[in-house]
Structure formats: structure tokens, C-alpha cells
Amino acid sequence: MPKVILTGDRPTGRLHVGHYAGSLKERVKLQNSGIYDKIFIMIADAQALTDNAEQPEKVRQNIIEVALDYLSCGLSPDLSTLLIQSQIPELCELSFYYMNLVTVSRLQRNPTVKSEIQMRNFEASIPVGFFTYPISQAADITAFKATTVPVGEDQLPMIEQTREIVRKFNTIYGDVLVEPDVLLPDNKACLRLPGIDGKAKMSKSLNNCIYLSDTEEEVRKKVMSMFTDPNHLQVSDPGQVEGNPVFIYLDAFCKEEMFAEYLPEYANLEELKAHYTRGGLGDVKVKKFLNKVLQEELAPIRSKRKEWEKDIPAVYEILRKGSMAAREVAAQTLDDVKKAMKINYFDDQALITEQSEKYHS
Ligand code: TRP
Fold first, then answer.
1. How far is the CA of 159 from the centre of ligand 1 (A)?
2. How far apart are CA 162 and CA 156, in angstroms?
3. What phi and psi, each to the nearest 5 degrees, are found at residue 258?
4. CATH number for the domain that contains residue 69
5. Which of 62, 94, 136, 176 places its Cα 20 to 30 Å from the Cα of 45?
6. Do 142 and 165 contact (CB within 8 A), yes or no?
7. Is 8 in the pocket of ligand 1 (CB under 6 A)?
8. What are the residues whose beta carbons fall under 8 Å from the beta carbon of 158, sequence distance 6 or more?
9. Has residue 208 been placed in a domain?
10. Continuous H helices in 77-155
């Protein structure tokens, strides 16, 4: 079986370092590993519209932002197919048939959907499209017969839902769909990077993100304003490392060789943490180091973005070509699905013969 990756993001804003640590960095690594036969990266605009029906312009504007973020992180159109979800109408058809395989109560139990409903204060007014987006996401994944879905931890319930749909479909109609595996980053700190305010998640509405496209100065300011251990008031006080965003970011991004370059008094992160825990190490010093670490990671991304920004039509052309290529793959899967469900009437010579015999024997 070919090894196929599918993953994607909703274009509701620029991507931030949470996206980068949780998934984007991993995707680029997987892409460059050469072990996958096909890689599809989807800008999920149709999914973004499920809770932004009244802001289509926001979605429209952010497609290019996400595409620029992808390209500047090193996703390459030569190695990965970059596509826009809404340009693949086959996905809607697949979703429509999958809807019959999922119960309302199963959707109501989805923890990610539950917490999103709370966050958006939807409660009694949940759009049907939003409620069913896990089904449409199953269509995204299965349309490309993806074997591997690299995502952040919050997407686990979506992959589980997809696997259930695949099993049910294959049981009823025969083996057509591929059951995907999820791939999470190895580094635990990357799983869910907190916001710079210490809140559990980076989110545009909380205004606590460091964006991949932030300038050097913006990144520096954000790092220097980061929430740390609130009980670490004086340099001499013992500090807490666990749950401290500055140290979580260091866990996610710092490499040992960076100490020799930027903070030679310490050999590695363990020594730095030990000093902070014992007391006598100020937040400013740690933040200055984190700033260096982040700038080193983000500088090449920023400069690549500048290059791509010079040729926006080329970026749209990459998305157009990718969407066209993706559509062919999805159309083939839809054919397989309809055939398995026996709703391919006009290609089904056996059906036509059977029906005519019924009337002529
Ligand atoms: N739900 C994902 C997010 O919110 C985006 C997405 C849409 C996706 N379709 C997908 C992710 C398919 C992985 C696979 O970021």
C-alpha cells in the first residue's frame, strides 16, 4: 500500500509557532524524509466556513497567508501537493454518503467539537455544517487514501471518527477506504504550546500568539512580555519550571549547541532549569536566551516568506495546480466509493441486464 500523508489547516489567520511546533515542522521533516509516496497539504477553507459563514472575506484573505506560511516553512510544491479544499467538490459528495454512517449522538460526544462549541458560545445555535465537520474531515482524509495524518493532539478525535467511518464503510460495502494512522510530534513540549500569556493554547482571539510572519522586533517584544512563574518575584527566589511557558518553549525549540553560542555559562537546558529551580536566575536572562533560540528558528522562515511575497500570482498558481492534481485523486476514490455502494448505475451493465431480464422473461 502506498504511504500517503494528508493534513491541513483552516485559513482563519496566519499560522503561529504553535502550529509550527505541533505540526508544520514535522510535515516538512516527513516531506524531506522521502519515505512517503504522496503528500497532500490542504487549506481547509470549507471547514473554516463552517463557523465563519458570515465572514467569508476573512477566509478568502487568509488562504494566501497560510500558503505563504507553508512555503516559507519549507513545504515544497515539488514534493507536496498544496490544495484548497473547496476546489475539490468530490469531498462534499463523499461527506454526504458518510453522513449515513455516523449517528448524531456520536458527533455530540466528539471532545474537540464539544470544546469548540463552548469556546464559540454556540450552545443552542450550532450550525449543522459545523456540527458535522468531523465527517467532512473524514472525507478529506479518505479521498486521498491517506495512511498517515500528522496533526496536533487536538485533532485525535477527528482521526478516530475517520477510522470508525472507514471501518463501517468497508464492512458494509467492501474494502475500499484506507484506515489512517495519526502521527504526533515526538517532543512532548511541541504537542501543545501555551500562549505567551500562559493560557493553554495559542489563539488569535486571545491575542497571545507568536506568528511565523512576525518581525524580529515583534517576536522579541512578545518573548520579553511572556508569562512565567508568578511566584518567581525576585531573582533569588526559587522558580518553577513545570508549566512555565518560557521553559516549555525552550523544551520545544532549544538545541544543545545553542548554549555554546548564546549562553555558554550553561552546558544544556537541564543545567539552566536546575539553576532556575534553585533560585538566583532571573526571568529576563532566560527570556533573552529564548529570544535568541526563537529568532534562530524563525529568521530563515521570515526571509523565505519575503521571497514568496514578491510573487503572489505564483503562489496562487501552485495552489491551482495542486488543487487540480488533488481533484483527480479524489475523483478516483469517489468512483471507487460509488461502485462499492452500487450507485454507479450507468456503468453497471449487470444491473441493466438484470432489470431487462426481469421484464422480458
Ligand atoms: N481540523 C483541522 C484544523 O482545525 C484542519 C483540517 C481539515 C484537517 N481537514 C483536515 C487536518 C484533514 C488533518 C486532516 O486545524
1. 10
2. 10
3. -70, -25
4. 3.40.50.620
5. 176
6. yes
7. yes
8. 110, 112, 134, 137, 138, 151
9. no
10. 90-98, 104-108, 111-119, 128-131, 133-143
- C-alpha to C-alpha distance for 67 and 237, rounded to whole angstroms: 45
Does the model's pTM come out above 0.90?
A: yes
Q: Return the SS3 of 127.
A: coil
Q: What is the domain range of residue 235? A: 216-308
pLDDT one-digit tens code per residue, 70-122? 999 999 999 999 999 999 999 999 999 999 999 999 999 999 988 888 887 77
Total domains in the chain come to 2
For 189-232, what is each residue's pLDDT tens digit?
888 799 999 998 898 889 999 999 999 999 999 999 999 999 99
CA of 181 to the centre of ligand 1 (A): 14
- pLDDT of 153 reads 84
Give pLDDT, residue 108.
92
Contacts for 224 with CB less than 8 Å, ≥ 6 apart: 284, 287, 288, 291
User: Is any ligand 1 atom within 6 A of the Cβ of residue 17?
Assistant: no
20 and 154 share a domain? yes
Q: What angle do CA 10, 15, 16 make, to 5 degrees?
A: 135
Q: Residue 123 — left, alpha, or beta (φ > 0 → left; ψ -120 to 50 → alpha)?
A: left
